[in-house]
Protein backbone atom coordinates (compact mmCIF):
# COMPACT_ATOMS: atom_id res chain seq x y z
CA UNK A 1 0.00 0.00 0.00
CA UNK A 2 2.72 2.49 0.97
CA UNK A 3 4.53 1.38 -2.15
CA UNK A 4 1.43 2.31 -4.14
CA UNK A 5 1.13 5.74 -2.48
CA UNK A 6 4.78 6.70 -2.93
CA UNK A 7 4.78 5.59 -6.53
CA UNK A 8 1.56 7.53 -7.26
CA UNK A 9 3.24 10.54 -5.71
CA UNK A 10 6.24 10.03 -8.02
CA UNK A 11 3.98 9.76 -11.05
CA UNK A 12 2.21 12.95 -10.02
CA UNK A 13 5.44 14.94 -9.67
CA UNK A 14 6.71 13.62 -13.00
CA UNK A 15 3.41 14.47 -14.62
CA UNK A 16 3.64 18.07 -13.38
CA UNK A 17 7.22 18.24 -14.65
CA UNK A 18 6.14 17.06 -18.08
CA UNK A 19 3.30 19.59 -18.12
CA UNK A 20 5.77 22.41 -17.43
CA UNK A 21 7.81 21.24 -20.42
CA UNK A 22 5.00 20.40 -22.83
CA UNK A 23 2.33 23.04 -22.21
CA UNK A 24 4.27 26.12 -23.38
CA UNK A 25 5.34 24.39 -26.59
CA UNK A 26 1.86 23.00 -27.16
CA UNK A 27 0.30 26.44 -26.76
CA UNK A 28 2.62 27.99 -29.32
CA UNK A 29 1.85 25.11 -31.67
CA UNK A 30 -1.93 25.37 -31.16
CA UNK A 31 -1.73 29.12 -31.64
CA UNK A 32 0.27 28.70 -34.84
CA UNK A 33 -2.72 26.98 -36.43
CA UNK A 34 -5.04 29.96 -35.96
CA UNK A 35 -5.33 33.27 -37.78
CA UNK A 36 -3.53 36.40 -36.60
CA UNK A 37 -6.74 38.26 -35.84
CA UNK A 38 -7.84 35.38 -33.61
CA UNK A 39 -4.56 35.60 -31.63
CA UNK A 40 -4.68 39.36 -31.41
CA UNK A 41 -8.20 39.26 -30.05
CA UNK A 42 -8.08 36.20 -27.79
CA UNK A 43 -4.40 35.63 -27.00
CA UNK A 44 -2.56 32.28 -27.04
CA UNK A 45 -4.72 29.25 -27.78
CA UNK A 46 -5.01 25.84 -26.13
CA UNK A 47 -6.85 24.11 -28.98
CA UNK A 48 -6.01 23.65 -32.64
CA UNK A 49 -7.36 25.98 -35.28
CA UNK A 50 -7.68 25.24 -38.96
CA UNK A 51 -5.01 27.41 -40.59
CA UNK A 52 -2.20 24.88 -40.18
CA UNK A 53 -1.36 24.29 -43.85
CA UNK A 54 -1.90 27.88 -44.83
CA UNK A 55 0.41 29.27 -42.13
CA UNK A 56 3.18 26.71 -42.41
CA UNK A 57 3.33 26.72 -46.20
CA UNK A 58 3.45 30.47 -46.26
CA UNK A 59 6.33 30.57 -43.77
CA UNK A 60 8.36 27.96 -45.61
CA UNK A 61 8.12 29.73 -48.94
CA UNK A 62 7.80 33.34 -47.84
CA UNK A 63 10.58 35.64 -48.98
CA UNK A 64 11.83 37.02 -45.68
CA UNK A 65 14.70 39.19 -44.54
CA UNK A 66 15.37 42.85 -45.15
CA UNK A 67 15.97 42.36 -48.83
CA UNK A 68 13.39 39.62 -49.23
CA UNK A 69 16.08 37.29 -50.47
CA UNK A 70 15.61 34.22 -48.35
CA UNK A 71 12.89 31.72 -47.53
CA UNK A 72 12.63 29.67 -44.34
CA UNK A 73 13.25 26.62 -46.48
CA UNK A 74 16.67 28.01 -47.47
CA UNK A 75 17.43 28.77 -43.83
CA UNK A 76 16.71 25.15 -42.92
CA UNK A 77 19.04 24.08 -45.69
CA UNK A 78 21.77 26.39 -44.35
CA UNK A 79 21.28 25.19 -40.78
CA UNK A 80 21.45 21.61 -41.92
CA UNK A 81 24.72 22.21 -43.81
CA UNK A 82 26.18 24.06 -40.85
CA UNK A 83 25.15 21.46 -38.24
CA UNK A 84 26.29 18.52 -40.35
CA UNK A 85 29.58 20.25 -41.13
CA UNK A 86 30.24 21.01 -37.47
CA UNK A 87 29.36 17.45 -36.44
CA UNK A 88 31.53 15.71 -39.02
CA UNK A 89 34.52 18.05 -38.87
CA UNK A 90 34.75 18.14 -35.09
CA UNK A 91 34.17 14.42 -34.66
CA UNK A 92 36.72 13.37 -37.29
CA UNK A 93 39.45 15.71 -36.05
CA UNK A 94 38.74 14.77 -32.43
CA UNK A 95 38.82 11.03 -33.11
CA UNK A 96 42.23 11.42 -34.72
CA UNK A 97 43.70 13.77 -32.12
CA UNK A 98 42.56 11.57 -29.23
CA UNK A 99 44.11 8.57 -30.97
CA UNK A 100 47.48 10.26 -31.20
CA UNK A 101 47.32 11.38 -27.57
CA UNK A 102 46.49 7.94 -26.20
CA UNK A 103 48.21 5.48 -28.50
CA UNK A 104 51.51 7.21 -29.23
CA UNK A 105 54.62 7.99 -27.31
CA UNK A 106 54.86 11.69 -28.14
CA UNK A 107 57.54 14.19 -27.33
CA UNK A 108 56.18 17.03 -25.18
CA UNK A 109 53.00 15.04 -24.62
CA UNK A 110 51.99 17.07 -21.57
CA UNK A 111 52.41 20.35 -23.40
CA UNK A 112 50.37 19.16 -26.38
CA UNK A 113 47.77 17.84 -24.05
CA UNK A 114 47.35 21.23 -22.37
CA UNK A 115 47.40 23.13 -25.66
CA UNK A 116 44.40 21.07 -26.72
CA UNK A 117 42.40 20.86 -23.52
CA UNK A 118 42.83 24.35 -22.13
CA UNK A 119 40.73 25.53 -25.09
CA UNK A 120 37.65 24.12 -23.38
CA UNK A 121 37.93 27.01 -20.93
CA UNK A 122 37.71 29.64 -23.68
CA UNK A 123 34.31 29.42 -25.41
CA UNK A 124 33.69 31.25 -28.66
CA UNK A 125 31.73 33.98 -26.88
CA UNK A 126 34.97 35.16 -25.26
CA UNK A 127 36.79 35.66 -28.54
CA UNK A 128 33.96 36.52 -30.83
CA UNK A 129 35.22 39.78 -32.39
CA UNK A 130 38.82 38.64 -32.90
CA UNK A 131 37.48 35.43 -34.46
CA UNK A 132 35.40 37.56 -36.75
CA UNK A 133 38.38 39.67 -37.75
CA UNK A 134 40.42 36.53 -38.43
CA UNK A 135 37.60 35.30 -40.66
CA UNK A 136 37.47 38.65 -42.40
CA UNK A 137 41.22 38.55 -42.95
CA UNK A 138 40.97 35.07 -44.45
CA UNK A 139 38.04 36.19 -46.58
CA UNK A 140 35.68 33.64 -45.04
CA UNK A 141 32.80 35.89 -44.00
CA UNK A 142 29.55 34.83 -45.69
CA UNK A 143 30.51 31.27 -46.46
CA UNK A 144 29.60 27.85 -45.15
CA UNK A 145 33.25 27.39 -44.24
CA UNK A 146 33.03 30.51 -42.08
CA UNK A 147 29.90 29.23 -40.36
CA UNK A 148 31.32 25.77 -39.69
CA UNK A 149 35.02 25.84 -38.86
CA UNK A 150 35.20 28.21 -35.85
CA UNK A 151 32.37 26.26 -34.20
CA UNK A 152 34.27 23.02 -34.84
CA UNK A 153 37.35 24.38 -33.09
CA UNK A 154 36.44 22.51 -29.93
CA UNK A 155 38.19 19.85 -27.91
CA UNK A 156 35.05 18.61 -26.15
CA UNK A 157 34.70 15.54 -28.35
CA UNK A 158 38.45 14.86 -28.06
CA UNK A 159 37.95 14.62 -24.34
CA UNK A 160 35.18 12.06 -24.68
CA UNK A 161 37.08 9.96 -27.21
CA UNK A 162 40.20 9.98 -25.08
CA UNK A 163 38.13 8.89 -22.12
CA UNK A 164 36.67 6.10 -24.21
CA UNK A 165 40.03 4.88 -25.58
CA UNK A 166 41.24 4.55 -22.01
CA UNK A 167 38.63 1.86 -21.41
CA UNK A 168 39.76 -0.15 -24.44
CA UNK A 169 41.86 -3.08 -23.16
CA UNK A 170 45.58 -2.99 -24.00
CA UNK A 171 45.35 -6.55 -25.32
CA UNK A 172 43.50 -5.24 -28.36
CA UNK A 173 46.54 -3.41 -29.62
CA UNK A 174 48.83 -6.29 -28.73
CA UNK A 175 46.80 -8.76 -30.73
CA UNK A 176 46.35 -6.31 -33.59
CA UNK A 177 50.11 -5.89 -33.71
CA UNK A 178 50.54 -9.67 -33.81
CA UNK A 179 48.16 -9.70 -36.77
CA UNK A 180 50.51 -7.24 -38.43
CA UNK A 181 48.19 -4.23 -38.32
CA UNK A 182 49.95 -0.92 -38.75
CA UNK A 183 48.85 2.26 -37.01
CA UNK A 184 46.35 3.27 -39.68
CA UNK A 185 44.82 -0.21 -39.96
CA UNK A 186 44.49 -0.47 -36.20
CA UNK A 187 42.74 2.89 -36.10
CA UNK A 188 40.34 2.17 -38.95
CA UNK A 189 39.70 -1.58 -38.54
CA UNK A 190 39.78 -1.96 -34.77
CA UNK A 191 39.32 1.29 -32.89
CA UNK A 192 36.67 3.05 -34.99
CA UNK A 193 34.25 0.10 -35.10
CA UNK A 194 34.71 -0.25 -31.35
CA UNK A 195 33.96 3.44 -30.76
CA UNK A 196 30.74 3.40 -32.79
CA UNK A 197 28.43 4.29 -29.89
CA UNK A 198 30.68 7.12 -28.81
CA UNK A 199 30.97 8.42 -32.37
CA UNK A 200 27.19 8.48 -32.80
CA UNK A 201 26.75 10.22 -29.44
CA UNK A 202 29.29 12.89 -30.33
CA UNK A 203 27.80 13.39 -33.81
CA UNK A 204 24.40 14.03 -32.20
CA UNK A 205 25.90 16.32 -29.57
CA UNK A 206 27.85 18.39 -32.09
CA UNK A 207 24.97 18.48 -34.58
CA UNK A 208 22.64 19.98 -32.00
CA UNK A 209 25.44 22.29 -30.85
CA UNK A 210 25.98 23.50 -34.42
CA UNK A 211 22.29 23.81 -35.24
CA UNK A 212 21.62 25.85 -32.10
CA UNK A 213 24.33 28.45 -32.71
CA UNK A 214 22.93 31.95 -32.58
CA UNK A 215 25.55 34.61 -31.94
CA UNK A 216 28.17 33.39 -34.41
CA UNK A 217 25.88 33.13 -37.48
CA UNK A 218 24.46 36.53 -36.54
CA UNK A 219 27.93 38.01 -36.78
CA UNK A 220 29.50 36.12 -39.65
CA UNK A 221 26.63 36.30 -42.16
CA UNK A 222 25.91 39.71 -43.57
CA UNK A 223 24.40 38.21 -46.70
CA UNK A 224 20.92 36.80 -46.22
CA UNK A 225 21.87 33.82 -48.37
CA UNK A 226 23.70 32.32 -45.40
CA UNK A 227 21.17 32.94 -42.66
CA UNK A 228 20.44 29.98 -40.43
CA UNK A 229 17.14 29.11 -38.75
CA UNK A 230 18.00 29.99 -35.17
CA UNK A 231 19.41 33.41 -36.01
CA UNK A 232 16.68 33.93 -38.61
CA UNK A 233 14.09 33.86 -35.83
CA UNK A 234 15.19 37.29 -34.76
CA UNK A 235 15.36 38.58 -38.29
CA UNK A 236 12.11 37.25 -39.70
CA UNK A 237 9.28 39.68 -39.97
CA UNK A 238 5.68 38.69 -40.62
CA UNK A 239 2.48 38.37 -38.72
CA UNK A 240 2.28 36.73 -35.32
CA UNK A 241 0.97 33.31 -36.40
CA UNK A 242 3.71 33.02 -39.00
CA UNK A 243 6.29 33.70 -36.35
CA UNK A 244 4.70 31.02 -34.16
CA UNK A 245 4.89 28.58 -37.05
CA UNK A 246 8.53 29.45 -37.68
CA UNK A 247 9.43 28.96 -34.00
CA UNK A 248 7.71 25.57 -34.01
CA UNK A 249 9.52 24.40 -37.12
CA UNK A 250 12.87 25.67 -35.87
CA UNK A 251 12.83 23.27 -32.92
CA UNK A 252 11.76 20.17 -34.81
CA UNK A 253 15.14 18.94 -36.19
CA UNK A 254 17.17 18.92 -32.94
CA UNK A 255 14.26 17.56 -30.87
CA UNK A 256 13.62 14.81 -33.37
CA UNK A 257 17.27 13.80 -33.39
CA UNK A 258 17.51 13.74 -29.61
CA UNK A 259 14.32 11.71 -29.19
CA UNK A 260 14.98 9.22 -31.98
CA UNK A 261 18.65 8.68 -31.13
CA UNK A 262 18.19 9.12 -27.38
CA UNK A 263 19.55 5.67 -26.48
CA UNK A 264 22.80 6.13 -28.40
CA UNK A 265 23.24 9.63 -27.06
CA UNK A 266 22.85 8.63 -23.42
CA UNK A 267 24.90 5.47 -23.86
CA UNK A 268 27.80 7.44 -25.31
CA UNK A 269 27.76 10.41 -22.96
CA UNK A 270 27.50 8.29 -19.83
CA UNK A 271 29.62 5.47 -21.21
CA UNK A 272 27.43 2.78 -19.79
CA UNK A 273 27.53 -0.46 -21.64
CA UNK B 1 30.71 9.37 -16.85
CA UNK B 2 33.27 12.09 -17.33
CA UNK B 3 33.84 14.51 -14.50
CA UNK B 4 35.81 17.68 -15.13
CA UNK B 5 38.91 17.14 -13.00
CA UNK B 6 39.23 13.48 -13.73
CA UNK B 7 40.15 14.09 -17.34
CA UNK B 8 42.84 16.66 -16.82
CA UNK B 9 45.64 14.18 -16.33
CA UNK B 10 47.72 12.89 -19.17
CA UNK B 11 47.13 9.29 -19.94
CA UNK B 12 48.85 6.95 -22.34
CA UNK B 13 48.54 3.28 -23.11
CA UNK B 14 51.27 0.96 -21.90
CA UNK B 15 51.46 -0.59 -25.33
CA UNK B 16 51.97 2.15 -27.85
CA UNK B 17 53.05 2.98 -31.32
CA UNK B 18 56.39 4.62 -31.80
CA UNK B 19 56.85 6.69 -34.89
CA UNK B 20 58.73 9.77 -35.90
CA UNK B 21 55.92 11.47 -37.76
CA UNK B 22 52.59 9.65 -38.07
CA UNK B 23 51.30 10.82 -34.66
CA UNK B 24 51.57 14.38 -35.93
CA UNK B 25 49.46 13.50 -38.96
CA UNK B 26 46.71 12.44 -36.57
CA UNK B 27 47.10 15.57 -34.48
CA UNK B 28 47.48 18.04 -37.33
CA UNK B 29 43.83 18.64 -38.34
CA UNK B 30 42.62 19.49 -34.86
CA UNK B 31 45.76 21.38 -33.86
CA UNK B 32 45.64 23.36 -37.10
CA UNK B 33 42.02 24.38 -36.58
CA UNK B 34 42.65 25.26 -32.94
CA UNK B 35 45.73 27.33 -33.75
CA UNK B 36 44.10 29.34 -36.54
CA UNK B 37 40.55 29.71 -35.24
CA UNK B 38 41.16 29.70 -31.51
CA UNK B 39 44.70 30.68 -30.55
CA UNK B 40 45.06 33.40 -33.15
CA UNK B 41 41.82 35.11 -32.00
CA UNK B 42 42.86 34.74 -28.36
CA UNK B 43 46.15 36.48 -29.10
CA UNK B 44 44.17 39.22 -30.85
CA UNK B 45 41.90 39.51 -27.82
CA UNK B 46 44.95 40.27 -25.70
CA UNK B 47 46.22 42.73 -28.29
CA UNK B 48 42.83 44.50 -28.34
CA UNK B 49 42.67 44.60 -24.56
CA UNK B 50 45.98 46.42 -24.22
CA UNK B 51 45.57 48.86 -27.09
CA UNK B 52 43.22 51.65 -27.94
CA UNK B 53 42.01 52.41 -31.45
CA UNK B 54 42.30 56.06 -32.35
CA UNK B 55 39.11 57.85 -33.24
CA UNK B 56 39.59 57.57 -36.99
CA UNK B 57 40.58 53.93 -36.98
CA UNK B 58 44.01 54.62 -38.49
CA UNK B 59 46.03 52.92 -35.83
CA UNK B 60 46.19 51.51 -32.38
CA UNK B 61 48.20 52.60 -29.44
CA UNK B 62 49.54 50.47 -26.61
CA UNK B 63 47.85 51.73 -23.46
CA UNK B 64 48.79 49.18 -20.77
CA UNK B 65 45.81 48.62 -18.45
CA UNK B 66 43.76 51.65 -19.47
CA UNK B 67 40.97 49.52 -20.93
CA UNK B 68 40.76 47.57 -17.71
CA UNK B 69 40.73 50.71 -15.56
CA UNK B 70 38.03 52.04 -17.82
CA UNK B 71 35.72 49.06 -17.32
CA UNK B 72 36.30 49.14 -13.55
CA UNK B 73 35.20 52.78 -13.60
CA UNK B 74 32.07 51.87 -15.48
CA UNK B 75 29.04 51.36 -13.17
CA UNK B 76 27.34 49.39 -15.96
CA UNK B 77 30.10 46.78 -15.70
CA UNK B 78 29.33 46.14 -12.06
CA UNK B 79 25.61 45.99 -12.77
CA UNK B 80 26.31 43.29 -15.39
CA UNK B 81 28.70 41.56 -12.99
CA UNK B 82 26.13 41.51 -10.22
CA UNK B 83 23.42 40.24 -12.54
CA UNK B 84 25.64 37.46 -13.93
CA UNK B 85 26.44 36.21 -10.43
CA UNK B 86 22.80 36.30 -9.30
CA UNK B 87 21.64 34.76 -12.56
CA UNK B 88 24.06 31.83 -12.48
CA UNK B 89 23.36 31.22 -8.79
CA UNK B 90 19.57 31.21 -9.17
CA UNK B 91 19.57 29.16 -12.37
CA UNK B 92 21.90 26.58 -10.80
CA UNK B 93 19.68 26.37 -7.72
CA UNK B 94 16.34 26.16 -9.55
CA UNK B 95 17.34 23.80 -12.36
CA UNK B 96 19.44 21.65 -10.04
CA UNK B 97 16.70 21.14 -7.46
CA UNK B 98 13.88 20.57 -9.94
CA UNK B 99 16.11 18.29 -12.03
CA UNK B 100 17.06 16.31 -8.92
CA UNK B 101 13.43 16.08 -7.75
CA UNK B 102 12.29 14.74 -11.11
CA UNK B 103 15.24 12.35 -11.40
CA UNK B 104 14.56 10.88 -7.95
CA UNK B 105 10.90 10.33 -8.85
CA UNK B 106 11.78 8.81 -12.23
CA UNK B 107 14.27 6.48 -10.53
CA UNK B 108 11.56 5.56 -8.04
CA UNK B 109 8.83 4.40 -10.40
CA UNK B 110 8.65 0.79 -11.50
CA UNK B 111 6.92 1.34 -14.82
CA UNK B 112 7.39 3.94 -17.50
CA UNK B 113 10.90 5.01 -16.57
CA UNK B 114 12.04 5.31 -20.17
CA UNK B 115 8.82 7.05 -21.23
CA UNK B 116 9.39 9.70 -18.60
CA UNK B 117 12.98 10.02 -19.74
CA UNK B 118 11.86 10.65 -23.32
CA UNK B 119 9.19 13.13 -22.25
CA UNK B 120 11.66 15.13 -20.18
CA UNK B 121 14.82 14.99 -22.28
CA UNK B 122 13.77 16.89 -25.41
CA UNK B 123 13.83 20.51 -24.14
CA UNK B 124 17.61 20.02 -23.84
CA UNK B 125 17.80 20.10 -27.64
CA UNK B 126 16.09 23.48 -28.12
CA UNK B 127 18.35 26.46 -28.81
CA UNK B 128 18.44 29.11 -26.06
CA UNK B 129 17.48 31.74 -28.64
CA UNK B 130 14.38 29.74 -29.57
CA UNK B 131 13.45 29.37 -25.90
CA UNK B 132 13.84 33.13 -25.56
CA UNK B 133 11.52 33.82 -28.49
CA UNK B 134 8.96 31.48 -26.97
CA UNK B 135 9.27 33.07 -23.53
CA UNK B 136 8.69 36.36 -25.26
CA UNK B 137 5.16 35.29 -26.18
CA UNK B 138 4.33 34.38 -22.60
CA UNK B 139 5.66 37.65 -21.23
CA UNK B 140 4.35 40.04 -23.85
CA UNK B 141 2.12 42.79 -22.58
CA UNK B 142 -0.43 42.14 -25.31
CA UNK B 143 -1.31 38.48 -24.89
CA UNK B 144 1.32 37.00 -22.57
CA UNK B 145 -0.34 34.61 -20.12
CA UNK B 146 2.39 34.81 -17.50
CA UNK B 147 2.60 38.56 -17.89
CA UNK B 148 -1.10 38.90 -17.10
CA UNK B 149 -1.05 36.32 -14.33
CA UNK B 150 1.84 38.03 -12.55
CA UNK B 151 0.39 41.43 -13.29
CA UNK B 152 -2.80 40.45 -11.49
CA UNK B 153 -0.79 39.09 -8.56
CA UNK B 154 1.58 41.96 -7.85
CA UNK B 155 1.52 44.40 -10.73
CA UNK B 156 4.27 42.64 -12.69
CA UNK B 157 5.89 44.90 -15.29
CA UNK B 158 9.30 43.84 -16.57
CA UNK B 159 9.70 46.94 -18.73
CA UNK B 160 10.17 49.00 -15.58
CA UNK B 161 10.82 46.80 -12.59
CA UNK B 162 14.28 45.26 -12.18
CA UNK B 163 12.94 42.48 -9.97
CA UNK B 164 10.27 41.59 -12.52
CA UNK B 165 12.74 41.54 -15.38
CA UNK B 166 14.91 39.18 -13.29
CA UNK B 167 11.91 36.87 -12.93
CA UNK B 168 11.36 36.95 -16.68
CA UNK B 169 14.92 36.00 -17.66
CA UNK B 170 15.23 33.48 -14.83
CA UNK B 171 12.11 31.60 -15.94
CA UNK B 172 13.21 31.76 -19.58
CA UNK B 173 16.75 30.65 -18.69
CA UNK B 174 15.77 27.82 -16.34
CA UNK B 175 13.13 26.07 -18.41
CA UNK B 176 15.27 24.10 -20.83
CA UNK B 177 18.16 23.58 -18.40
CA UNK B 178 15.95 21.47 -16.09
CA UNK B 179 16.24 18.79 -18.75
CA UNK B 180 20.03 18.60 -18.63
CA UNK B 181 20.00 18.43 -14.83
CA UNK B 182 17.36 15.71 -14.91
CA UNK B 183 19.34 13.55 -17.36
CA UNK B 184 22.60 13.79 -15.41
CA UNK B 185 21.00 13.23 -12.01
CA UNK B 186 19.08 10.24 -13.30
CA UNK B 187 22.27 8.74 -14.72
CA UNK B 188 23.99 9.45 -11.40
CA UNK B 189 21.20 7.74 -9.47
CA UNK B 190 21.23 4.72 -11.73
CA UNK B 191 24.98 4.38 -11.27
CA UNK B 192 24.63 3.90 -7.52
CA UNK B 193 24.96 0.22 -6.73
CA UNK B 194 21.80 -1.61 -5.77
CA UNK B 195 23.54 -3.28 -2.81
CA UNK B 196 24.32 0.08 -1.20
CA UNK B 197 20.69 1.14 -1.45
CA UNK B 198 19.42 -2.21 -0.17
CA UNK B 199 21.78 -2.10 2.80
CA UNK B 200 20.68 1.43 3.64
CA UNK B 201 17.03 0.35 3.52
CA UNK B 202 17.68 -2.02 6.38
CA UNK B 203 19.51 0.57 8.45
CA UNK B 204 17.18 3.47 7.88
CA UNK B 205 13.45 3.13 7.43
CA UNK B 206 12.72 6.80 6.77
CA UNK B 207 13.11 7.27 3.03
CA UNK B 208 13.47 11.04 3.30
CA UNK B 209 16.39 10.75 5.73
CA UNK B 210 17.82 7.86 3.76
CA UNK B 211 17.99 10.07 0.69
CA UNK B 212 19.85 12.92 2.38
CA UNK B 213 22.27 10.76 4.37
CA UNK B 214 23.05 8.00 1.86
CA UNK B 215 21.94 8.79 -1.68
CA UNK B 216 22.68 12.50 -1.90
CA UNK B 217 26.30 12.25 -0.70
CA UNK B 218 26.84 9.53 -3.30
CA UNK B 219 25.55 11.96 -5.94
CA UNK B 220 28.15 14.59 -5.01
CA UNK B 221 30.29 14.11 -8.12
CA UNK B 222 27.23 14.58 -10.35
CA UNK B 223 26.13 17.59 -8.33
CA UNK B 224 29.44 19.38 -8.66
CA UNK B 225 29.68 18.52 -12.31
CA UNK B 226 26.22 20.02 -12.85
CA UNK B 227 27.10 23.14 -10.87
CA UNK B 228 29.90 23.80 -13.35
CA UNK B 229 27.66 22.95 -16.32
CA UNK B 230 24.92 25.29 -15.06
CA UNK B 231 27.29 28.16 -14.32
CA UNK B 232 28.82 27.81 -17.79
CA UNK B 233 25.33 27.78 -19.26
CA UNK B 234 24.28 30.92 -17.36
CA UNK B 235 27.51 32.71 -18.30
CA UNK B 236 27.68 31.92 -21.99
CA UNK B 237 24.68 30.10 -23.45
CA UNK B 238 22.10 32.56 -22.14
CA UNK B 239 23.23 35.18 -24.66
CA UNK B 240 20.49 34.00 -27.04
CA UNK B 241 17.92 34.20 -24.26
CA UNK B 242 18.78 37.74 -23.16
CA UNK B 243 18.93 38.92 -26.77
CA UNK B 244 15.45 37.60 -27.52
CA UNK B 245 13.73 38.52 -24.25
CA UNK B 246 14.60 41.66 -22.29
CA UNK B 247 17.61 42.85 -24.35
CA UNK B 248 18.89 44.11 -21.01
CA UNK B 249 15.68 45.90 -19.93
CA UNK B 250 14.76 47.90 -17.88
CA UNK B 251 18.06 49.71 -18.49
CA UNK B 252 20.93 47.24 -18.59
CA UNK B 253 20.05 45.40 -15.37
CA UNK B 254 19.52 42.08 -17.15
CA UNK B 255 22.68 42.11 -19.24
CA UNK B 256 25.12 39.30 -18.56
CA UNK B 257 28.85 40.01 -18.82
CA UNK B 258 28.97 38.27 -22.20
CA UNK B 259 26.03 40.29 -23.44
CA UNK B 260 27.54 43.56 -22.29
CA UNK B 261 30.91 42.78 -23.86
CA UNK B 262 29.20 41.97 -27.12
CA UNK B 263 27.13 45.14 -27.09
CA UNK B 264 30.16 47.31 -26.29
CA UNK B 265 32.14 45.74 -29.09
CA UNK B 266 29.38 45.55 -31.65
CA UNK B 267 27.20 48.59 -31.05
CA UNK B 268 29.87 50.78 -29.52
CA UNK B 269 32.70 49.49 -31.73
CA UNK B 270 34.89 49.60 -28.64
CA UNK B 271 37.09 46.55 -29.27
CA UNK B 272 39.55 47.54 -26.53
CA UNK B 273 36.86 47.41 -23.90
CA UNK B 274 35.32 44.22 -25.35
CA UNK B 275 38.78 42.60 -25.27
CA UNK B 276 39.42 43.67 -21.70
CA UNK B 277 36.00 42.36 -20.66
CA UNK B 278 36.72 39.04 -22.37
CA UNK B 279 39.98 38.69 -20.49
CA UNK B 280 38.21 39.46 -17.22
CA UNK B 281 35.79 36.64 -18.02
CA UNK B 282 38.63 34.26 -18.85
CA UNK B 283 40.03 35.07 -15.41
CA UNK B 284 36.65 34.34 -13.80
CA UNK B 285 36.44 30.98 -15.58
CA UNK B 286 39.99 30.21 -14.50
CA UNK B 287 39.23 31.09 -10.88
CA UNK B 288 36.15 28.86 -10.86
CA UNK B 289 38.16 26.00 -12.35
CA UNK B 290 40.98 26.37 -9.85
CA UNK B 291 38.50 26.69 -7.01
CA UNK B 292 36.88 23.49 -8.13
CA UNK B 293 40.23 21.71 -8.22
CA UNK B 294 41.54 22.92 -4.92
CA UNK B 295 38.53 22.99 -2.66
CA UNK B 296 35.82 20.79 -4.03
CA UNK B 297 37.67 17.93 -5.62
CA UNK B 298 39.59 17.19 -2.45
CA UNK B 299 36.41 16.76 -0.49
CA UNK B 300 34.49 14.26 -2.56
CA UNK B 301 35.19 10.70 -3.45
CA UNK B 302 34.55 9.05 -6.74
CA UNK B 303 33.46 5.48 -6.56
**What is the helix content of chain A?**
over 70%
Q: Determine Rg of chain B (CA atoms, Å).
A: 23 Å
Structural class per helix/strand content of chain B? Answer: mainly alpha
What is the count of structural domains of chain A? 1
In round numbers, the mean pLDDT of chain A is: 89
Q: Determine the mean pLDDT of chain B.
A: 87
Kindly identify the CATH topology of chain A: MetI-like fold
State the helicity of chain B in percent bands. 55-70%
Q: CATH superfamily name of chain A?
A: MetI-like
How does the helix and strand content of chain A classify structurally?
A: mainly alpha
Strand count, sense and barrel status of the largest sheet of chain B are:
2 strands, antiparallel
Strand content of chain A: under 5%
The amount of beta strand of chain B, in percent, is under 5%
Number of helices of chain B: 14
Q: Your description of this structure?
A:
The complex is a heterodimer of chains A (273) and B (303). Chain A has 273 residues and is mostly helical. Chain A has one domain (74-270): MetI-like fold, CATH 1.10.3720.10. Chain A has 15 helices and no strands. Chain A has helices at residues 2-32, 36-42, 52-61, 72-103, 109-117, 128-137, 144-152, 156-167, 170-178, 183-194, 196-211, 215-220, 229-235, 240-260, 262-270. In chain A, α4 packs across α8 (156-167), α8 (156-167) runs antiparallel to α11 (196-211) and α11 (196-211) packs across α15. The longest helix of chain A has 32 residues, at 72-103. Chain A is globular, with a radius of gyration of 23 Å. Chain B is built from 14 helices and two strands; from the N terminus they run αββααααααααααααα. In chain B, α5 (128-138) packs across α7, α8 (177-191) runs antiparallel to α11 and α13 runs antiparallel to α14 (271-296). The N and C termini of chain B lie close together (11 Å). In chain B, strands 1-2 form a two-stranded antiparallel ribbon. Helix content of chain B is 70%, strand content 2%. Chain B has two domains: 18-66, no CATH class; 71-299, MetI-like fold. By secondary structure, chain B is mostly helical. Classes of the chains: A mainly alpha (273), B mainly alpha (303). Chains A and B meet through α1, α4, α5, α6 and α7 of A and α1, α3, α4, α5 and α8 of B.
